[in-house]
Amino acid sequence: MSFEWLNTTLGEICGAQGGAIQTGPFGSQLHTSDYKEFGIPVVMPTNIGESGIDEDCIARIDGFDVERLSQHKLKIGDIVFSRRGDVTKNALVRLHEVGWLCGTGCLKVRLGDEAIADAKFISYCLRLPETKEWLIRHAVGATMPNLNTGILSAVPITLPPLQSQLGIAATLGALDDRITLLRETNTTLEAIAQALFKSWFVDFDPVRSKAENLEPVGMDATTAALFPDSFEESESGLVPMGWRLMPLESAYEINPPRKLKKGEVAPYLDMASVGTQGHVVSGFINREVGGGTKFINGDTLLARITPCLENGKSAFVDFLSNDQTGWGSTEFVVLRPKAPLPPYHGYLLARHPMFREYAIQSMSGTSGRQRVQNDVLGRYSVVVPSDKVAEAFGLAVGSIQQKISANQEHAKTLTQIRDTLLPRLISGQLRLPDTEVANENMLSEAV
């Protein structure tokens, strides 16, 4: 390593650049009653994700409270840390997040004028495995790890010359941008599938159009011909002619039997690896089988317990080998549509607001441990179309599901490349002229 590389600390960098490390507002400054449905976002530890600040389910406050707590407003290049729990979580503030508030349970790192240290480079330093280990080792608290400004100030940082920092940050940032684009594409693809599900099986748009002697919008003539042009009465209202309204327990298998021997090693999925958005999971591990829910590719997993059900934790199983059976938390309900409904129908149903509202309202049990029961889910009414409509729907959404899975695999490959390059670039083991060659080698190996 060159003599130009400097061993320092996060606090020394902030001090040299006119920055500071600050604790977010305490509970006495920001109460639950202050939060509004609309307003300025407040970043809490739960909002700090792998790819930055997650705006989904973020708390908000009005402009008056933002100005009252103006010392906690975020600027571009700030780094927000989780102060308790998972103390390794941190996110770099981006342009569209300027003016948001560093919330309770967080710490704000403001690096200052960036004369010697680039904020994006520092954010990558803070994602190094050895930095995460250091934070865990130095956090205080027996039951829940906590950080404070003193601990964060002491985080060791190795600084190369500023130009090298900018180059490293640009290289890693380009990979992150590609990963983000793939994830955003998946969000768009899933929204298309959800819109199709709602149009065909909730709003019955093609049938309504044909009943009014209109051509269904956005549909070719061959597909349009598969739909009826009238409705018939059912106990729950009008349904398309020839379609059936069935209880979920008749249209689906709920927790179908799967075989795994106790003690054998099989893919295990925990609740934390299932997201509140998107059908893909963040990962799984191979583990000796114990008691738990069993599943195979094509199954949908629905979290049945509070707060996971309310938060929207659901997943579509497409990450196993063809002959594999996986297992996971007992708090998953496994849903698998019966013919003629295609497998992805189960996931789209699990994400649909009407079904989720029914499941949430049907939860029972003691406070804090409420869950929805299988027999209650089984009474939910599902519209089952003709075989040909179900087949057409399966082809459309099946193609989308496969694209999402392919994008996820590509994102996973890019993530592995980024995580391999990260420590080598920051330590100086790999210099920028060598990075392009290393990238090409790792991509070819991954393929």
TrEMBL record:
InterPro entries: Restrct_endonuc_typeI_TRD, Restrct_endonuc_typeI_TRD_sf, Type-I_RS_S_subunit
SUPFAM superfamilies linked: DNA methylase specificity domain
Keyword 4Fe-4S belongs to the record: no
GO molecular function annotation: DNA binding; endonuclease activity
Entry superkingdom: Bacteria
Keywords on record: DNA-binding, Endonuclease, Hydrolase, Nuclease, Restriction system
One GO term of the biological process aspect: DNA restriction-modification system
Residues annotated as domain Type I restriction modification DNA specificity: 41-190
Record bears the keyword Transmembrane helix: no
Family: Belongs to the type-I restriction system S methylase family.
Record-given protein name: Restriction endonuclease subunit S
Species of the source: Pseudomonas cremoricolorata
